[in-house]
Specification:
The chain has twelve helices and 20 strands. It is of the alpha/beta class. It folds into two domains: 5-188 and 203-217 and 375-396, 4-Layer Sandwich (Metallo-beta-lactamase, Chain A), CATH 3.60.15; 224-370, 3-Layer(aba) Sandwich (Rossmann fold). The strands form six sheets. It has a six-stranded mixed β-sheet. A four-stranded parallel β-sheet has the order 1-2-3-8. A hairpin with a 2-residue loop joins strand 11 (150-156) and strand 12 (159-163). Helix 4 (226-237) crosses helix 5 and helix 4 (226-237) packs parallel to helix 8. The relative contact order is 0.14. It binds a DNA duplex through residues 2-3, 22, 24, 43-46, 48-49, 51-54, 74-76, 215-216, 251-252, 338-342, 368, 373-374. Belongs to the DNA repair metallo-beta-lactamase (DRMBL) family. Residues 287-396 form the DNA repair metallo-beta-lactamase domain. One of its GO terms (biological process) is telomere maintenance.
Length: 465
Amino acid sequence: MPPGTPYNSFVLPYRIRVDEFSDSYKNSESYVKPLLHLLSHTHADHINGLAAKSFGYKVICSNDAKEMLLRHEVYAERALHENDMRAVVKRTFAHLKVDPWIQPDGTKFYHGSRDLLFALPLNTPTPFELNALETVTITLIDANHCPGAVMFLIQGDKGAILHTGDFRAEPWFLDTLSRNPFLQPYIPAENVPAVAEAEGPITYQPLEAIHLDTASLLSTLKVPTKEQAVTGLIELIALFPPTTYFFINSWTWGYEDILKAIANTFHCKIHVDRYKHSIYSHVSDPFLRSIFTCDPSSTRFHACERFDRCDIVSVEDYNYGNEPAPLSKVGKKVVYVNPIPMSESKWEMYLTSVKRQMNDGENVDSLLVALSRHSPLPELMSFVSLFRPRKVIPNTLIPALHGLDWACMKIMFADCVFNDPEAPSAYHDTEGIVDYNGPASDELDYNDGDVSFKNLMGGTQALQD
DNA sequence: GCGATCAGAT
DNA sequence: CACATCTGATCGC
């Protein structure tokens, strides 16, 4: 996890750790050995510690995340390969899956072989034995963040917890969740669509906690849906003559909606580099698999290596001032498309303003697209209100705020959580476990987000192996 | 001495 | 731009 994750990235009270694989605190007195590791998706800040050759535990993730992780290459390695300085590119996580040796006669030797990545299909509850005494059921649910990204529903004797990983909780996403039979027990009846509960009434039981994607917690913007963003961009692209080429700055996984919409609207493929092609040709979405080409001359639309673009969209040195629009090495006019978070109202104004510029014959050589991969506060509140969990725990905090963001968060979500002191809680009924509610005011400023981890586990003695 | 890991800037 | 990535410093065997 990025810096500032509470409880050392554990999903308390379970000894399950999410998106954090480093051992760096093993000599600290608050060390607790995880019994299960979960990986929500493969962005670099969620795979900390996994590249260590010494990592040797099973990791639960989606099929797409597994494929993406095993093919993961860092930029430096890709650049060396491209310049013929390295014949075989180092795959950062190759050590997580070592295939058996196969002799010419077909005999397999399993010694030293392993496959630590335990891929689960989506929406398929699967039991995992943490130890002789405790079993949990894990269900993966698509997170609408990037290929392979999932949320985790964790069910066990200490109650049910939903960990969102990184996600974008748009209205359609909430609607889909409210119809998910595995989540319905944790959604108040008034939030479940009538048609979805035709199977009969389900007794509502609040989630013990939601671990929430707080990357954009402090953004109060009402942002357009991904569909609104993509539709607007398509309208703008359609205003350019077919001789114009486009470079889409999809600099990290998660901008595929843009690429899919372009391929679908203009009936063409998207040029990507060898690395992106190797990843995209192994994802489960059949349409996403089908829209890419490695032939740069076959399309106007490019999403190739951003620091090593193909000649078609690579622009010669810029002449600043009132020079004509820059042309690429092969003389094409290239428009640069950059995804950024932007409010719905600003997006509408932007669309109007670019359409006017195009209409007036002004030169436009870059476009923005208002696509957010994280939910800002209004969407987070709608999401939490759908479930009314007992508490909300941030996936990340801003270390410099020393827990103030968490303190604020409790107030911001006060009207979105379940608050009935009479209702029994599996967690509170568990003997000998101390309740946790985020930082007490006298703990602020001291903990860097690692709030009373030892106390919260009821002391670490009994938990260490 | 070098790879692994961390922390901060962009 | 953004908030994932890269770079250079530091750690540790």
